[in-house]
Amino acid sequence: QVQLVESGGGLVQPGGSLRLSCAASGSIFSTYAMGWYRQGPGKQRELVARITSGGRTDYADSVKGRFTISRDNAKKTAYLQMNSLKPEDTAVYYCKADRYGVPYWGQGTQVTVSS
């Protein structure tokens, strides 16, 4: 099993930036694919970005060119750098670890983009 803890959320103005972190423990981090998901008020949870154990990345069309996912296996941490934030990015952001199709979720961190 793996335990995940997200941090870095908060209130930011439109056009601003935030960096989310996901710290993992309890298993071998380097073997897991990692992902960031979000769920806005009254909406379904959606994929934002993911990165495989080999470093391949994928992004939702709505965040391409603005968000960057990365990982540091030595620190057992995944990151989501968010630039040019928009009000529609407001959501609870969740970290996900996956190996062999078995998912593990963090508790989430709130991101609010507002003037």
Describe this structure in words.
- It is a single chain.
- The strands form 2 sheets. Strands 2, 4, 5, 6, 9, 10 and 11 form a 7-stranded mixed beta sheet that branches.
- 0% of the residues lie in helices and 54% in strands.
- The N and C termini lie far apart (40 Å).
- It has 115 residues and is an all-beta fold.
Summary tags:
mainly beta, 4-stranded antiparallel beta sheet
Q: Would you kindly provide a brief summary of this structure?
A:
It is built from no helices and eleven strands.
**Low-confidence sequence ranges:** none
Helix content range of the residues, please?
A: under 10%
How far is the first residue's CA from the last residue's CA?
Answer: 40 Å
SSE run: EEEEEEEEEEE
Which term fits the overall shape? globular
Rg: 13 Å
Number of helices: 0
Strand content: over 45%
Alpha-beta content class: mainly beta
Biggest sheet details: 7 strands, mixed
Look at the structure and give the mean pLDDT: 96
Number of strands: 11
How do the helices and strands line up, and which of them pair or pack?
Elements: E1 3-7, E2 10-12, E3 18-25, E4 33-39, E5 46-51, E6 57-59, E7 67-72, E8 77-82, E9 91-99, E10 102-105, E11 109-113
Parallel strand pairs: 2-11
Antiparallel strand pairs: 1-3, 3-8, 4-5, 4-9, 5-6, 7-8, 9-10, 9-11
